[in-house]
Design a protein that fits this description.
Number of helices: 2
Shape: elongated
Structural class: alpha/beta
Low-confidence stretches: 32-56, 61-71
Largest sheet: 12 strands, parallel
Helix content: 10-25%
Amino acid sequence: MADRPNADRDSRDTLADAEAEAAKEAAALAGAERGSGAKVTKPRVRTAGAARPRAKPAPPAAAPPAGVTAAPAEVELAGDVALSQGGAEHVRARSVTVSQGGIRDATAQDVTVRQGGIGRLQATDVAVTQGGIGFVRADRVSVELGGLGAALAGEVQATQAIVTNVVAREARIGQSFVRSIVAGSVHFDRPSVVGVLVARRVDGDVRVLLDWRGGLAIGAMLGLVMAFVRRRS
């Protein structure tokens, strides 16, 4: 037990001698590197991570084609107006095309309606497909798979359509229902149904619910009823 302090002292001396020798070797190695002029560079470390995607520049906004207007306001142009999935109050143009849209009032030369509608229209040529027009005054009107409230025209053609009133010089009806027709001549391409038919010349397959004599009688009766109501009021 008495030799224990001496053993500890010897081990500390040995450790100190070893540290001193290591320091000498390190100093000698550093001096040799400085003498040789060798340049020690640290390696660059690149972190392997997900690259951040570069933001793609937004494409420039496409300019609307000339003559196309879809604003819910009054449009008055001398050119062409195309309405797609929109609406307008009043339109005045050379030609009007409506696709899944609507116009309250329009005046144009050529009008095309596809799955849309126009409330009141004055035009030269009108073509309606799967759409409707409330009132139209035109030279030529064509309605297919659509509806027509009232038409005052030179020529009216209705195919698989529902028409309320027609006053025309010539009418051509195919597989349609028309409440009343007043025309110079009416041709029925396919079987159709007409409520009241007044015409100088009629040909084709048609079922008339009430001819012009019955229409005149009903009109006279309604006139008497209206006069009686006004007198009572």
